[in-house]
Request: fold
Amino acid sequence: MMLKVAPSVIFLALIFFLTACSIEPVKPWDRDLLAEDKMQLVPDALEETLDAHIYFSKESSFGGAGIGGGGCGCN
Reply:
């Protein structure tokens, strides 16, 4: 069974999807706010390293936090 859709509905859906993904550039006066430490993915590299070491020591596995796989070597 084929569902018939009015062309205006398709047009409105297309306009909605094209405008929903618009990209607004960062203003020069906002760049200093985005460069702060609290806006980084890992704000404190030393703390992240220590947490990874503690996790490795307790779980006896490493990895899985980045692009690579876990510590089992099965990837």
User: Anything to note?
Assistant: The chain is about 45% helix and 0% strand. Residues 45-59 form the longest helix (15 residues). The radius of gyration is 23 Å. Helices lie at 7-20, 31-34, 45-59.
